[in-house]
Amino acid sequence: MFSKSTTDPLQSPAQQESLGEKHCSTLHGDVLIKGDWTSDGVLEFSGKIIGNLTADVLVLTSEGRVNGNVRARNITIEGQLEGTVSALNIVVKATAKVMADIKSERILIEPGAEIQGNIQVAGKHAEDDN
């Protein structure tokens, strides 16, 4: 009701529909976490974390700050991230400032995004039936 819609352009319509069935957590800008955070659902994060962040789906808003390692199936980065990122699908928005090594199967980087670090993209390849 109070959070903005965040549609990930790398998700299929079936994946987007399944998000409605997952547990959603929203952590606002006044939240400071020193330690690790794990969520098995959708996490919209606007606070600051010094530690590792693991979620099924992560939206790091433009106000969000992460200093640590991030793992998720799908990640949208709008804010600042320093550490490492590992995900199947990553969207780096124009407002993002990322100083991290990134590993992903698919990545979309909008013009204006700032990235410093190594990017490793290893997409799935269709198996040869012959």
For the report, how would you describe the main beta sheet?
A: 11 strands, parallel
Q: Oligomeric state of the chains?
A: single chain
Termini Cα gap: 51 Å
Computed Rg: 14 Å
Which series of helices and strands comes N to C? HEEEEEEEEEEE
Structural class: mainly beta
Return the average pLDDT rounded to an integer: 85
Sequence stretches where pLDDT stays below 50 over 5 or more residues: 1-5, 12-19
Q: Counting H and I runs of at least 4 residues, what is the number of helices?
A: 1
Number of strands: 11
Shape designation: globular
Strand share of the residues?
A: over 45%
Range of helix content: under 10%
Provide a brief overview of the structure:
The protein is mainly β. 5% of the residues lie in helices and 53% in strands.
Give an account of the 3D structure:
By secondary structure, this protein is mainly β. The protein has a domain at 40-112. 5% of the residues lie in helices and 53% in strands. The chain has one helix and eleven strands. Strands 1, 2, 3, 4, 5, 6, 7, 8, 9, 10 and 11 form an eleven-stranded parallel beta sheet that branches. It is globular, with a radius of gyration of 14 Å. The N and C termini lie far apart (51 Å). Mean pLDDT is 85; it is low at 1-5 and 12-19.
Which characteristics define this entry?
130 residues; mainly beta; 11-stranded parallel sheet; 5% helix; 53% strand; globular; disordered N terminus
